Amino acid sequence: MKTYNQTNFFKHTFCEFEQVDNFKFPGKTNYKSKSESIYFYTDEGVYRKSNHWGRVANCRWRLISNKNYKNQQIVIGFAKWTNFYPINSSEKIFFIDVNFEEKSAKIQTKKTIEAQKLFTFSEAQKKTKQINHLFKDDKWASYFNEEINILRKKIIIKFINSEKTLQQIKSTYK
Questions:
Q1: Is the pTM of this model over 0.70?
Q2: Which of 41, 85, 91, 117 lies at a 20 to 30 A Cα distance from 111?
Q3: Closest-CA residue to 117 (of 159, 76, 56, 62)
């Protein structure tokens, strides 16, 4: 596994930053981006002050925020160097976390759980997009003779635990 630090954390990485409300940036910061995000490095990790999260240049940086966060609001986040993962790798270090009550799916790193099927970032991204589409659109279910929520759950669970395509899994329920 690659080791990240202040010289390479911004190169094709996935990371979850925790929102920090009580950090004051020193007068001299380590880096300021063209989009006005500022960074301060410590031995343990990096603080980032920004109004945009998610897709950041060639990275995918998620903000784990408190309930008051609104998009485009300036927020400070902190991430340990050990929380950065490569997204352009062939390593299978990501899994898909599905919340059936909230009808959502998101990519997680293997450090959070060991019992899931693991994917590369690209594979996990594609599967997550397809799962979120299953949650939003119900038209596909009209071809099946089962209640939509039960069917959806069966299909998604098989999908995140196999190498099969969504189409292959759906066809087993017709």
A1: yes
A2: 41
A3: 159
